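> call design_seq(struct)
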């Protein structure tokens, strides 16, 4: 199978994540998109909590929001590979482990333009390239030349396999959603309805 990997904290998951996954699925003929919540990310903080129990509860909530967001989409799957990790989850480790566990499958790692330009700062980033094809999402049409130059540079220097992923530009972020939820403002249309309901029922992100 050809499997797309969408990693992130998903705090919360929003329609931008889902659209990116859907466009990758369609444009590259993928069989499945795996949404992989990160339980212990090394470079991005999740919502701050007081103790380990709170962190574990927050992780369960993030996982449940992903589960509800993708429910009913047969080619969207929830993958708990990183959520169950005790140590920091690094991309190179995750992709290496997936290749070992699923040797018959091909993996496509989906990331944004900012991550593509910053990838040389990632830990052991060169070890990512042999494990997958990278699908780099453009922010808008004006970025085409810069993206193509970065792709050519990484491909020539490191032998990376990178393709442009053209998806709609949506100025939606998990930070904005958390801020609006904290103020009891509407987050409809930013996240799927089941996630809106879950956030409301559990009073998530409230001040």
């Amino acid at each position: 199978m050809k499997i797309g990997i969408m990693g992130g904290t998903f705090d919360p998951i929003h329609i931008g994540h889902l659209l990116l996954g859907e466009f990758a699925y369609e444009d590259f003929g993928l069989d499945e998109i795996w949404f992989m919540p990160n339980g212990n990310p090394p470079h991005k903080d999740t919502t701050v909590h007081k103790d380990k129990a709170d962190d574990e509860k927050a992780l369960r909530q993030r996982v449940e929001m992903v589960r509800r967001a993708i429910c009913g989409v047969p080619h969207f799957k929830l993958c708990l590979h990183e959520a169950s990790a005790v140590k920091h989850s690094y991309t190179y480790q995750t992709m290496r482990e997936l290749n070992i566990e699923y040797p018959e499958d091909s993996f496509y790692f989906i990331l944004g333009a900012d991550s593509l330009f910053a990838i040389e700062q990632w830990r052991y980033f060169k070890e990512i390239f042999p494990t997958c094809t990278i699908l780099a999402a453009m922010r808008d049409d004006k970025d085409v030349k810069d993206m193509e130059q970065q792709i050519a540079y990484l491909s020539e220097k490191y032998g990376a396999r990178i393709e442009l992923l053209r998806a709609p530009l949506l100025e939606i972020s998990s930070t904005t959603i958390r801020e609006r939820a904290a103020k009891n403002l509407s987050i409809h249309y930013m996240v799927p309805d089941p996630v809106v309901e879950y956030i409301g029922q559990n009073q998530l992100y409230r001040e």
